[in-house]
Amino acid sequence: MQLLDQIAEARIQEAIERGELRDLPGEGKPLQLDDDSAVSEELRAAYRILKNAGYLPPELQLRKDVRDAEALLQQLPESERCRARARLHLLQLRLAASRRPINLLVEDRYRERLLEKLDPSS
């Protein structure tokens, strides 16, 4: 176990012994954890902070905007749907354009150069 983990465990145990963790919401119930297995371990904390702050990456925000526009379109009377359809179409075009193919060769070179710059031994 790493030093930080040991310190955290010790502090948690001290808080339990002092009774500071009694009567908390959800006590005795299983934790509802997000499935973040697709996110690399180094990025999980940052992603969780961004999620808790209500931030969505641009591509996910665009998908959310499309879903919201579709839901709005269903609720509008027929006489008001023309402008909403135009907005939905524009969002769908933006979403399609954002799904451009990635040039793996260029991405690989960029990653290598970035790692070289970040390497403290160079």
Task: Report on the architecture of this protein.
By secondary structure, the protein is mainly α. The chain has a domain of 44 residues. It has 5 helices and no strands. α3 packs antiparallel against α4. The longest helix is centred in the middle third of the chain and has 18 residues. It is flat, with a radius of gyration of 23 Å. The relative contact order is 0.05.
| Oligomer category | single chain
> Helix share of residues?
55-70%
- Please report which band the strand proportion falls in: under 5%, 5-15%, 15-25%, 25-35%, 35-45% or over 45%: under 5%
How big is the Rg?
23 Å
Largest sheet: none
The best one-word shape is: flat
Low-confidence stretches: none
| SS-derived structural category | mainly alpha
Distance between the termini: 30 Å
Q: How many strand units?
A: 0
| Number of H- or I-type helical stretches | 5
Instruction: List the helices and strands in order.
Output: HHHHH
Q: Estimate the mean pLDDT confidence.
A: 81
At a glance:
With 122 residues, the protein is mainly α. The protein contains 5 helices and no strands.
List strands and helices in order, with pairings:
Blueprint: H1 3-18, H2 44-52, H3 58-75, H4 81-98, H5 104-118
Helix pairs in contact: 3-4
Keywords:
122 residues; mainly alpha; 5 helices
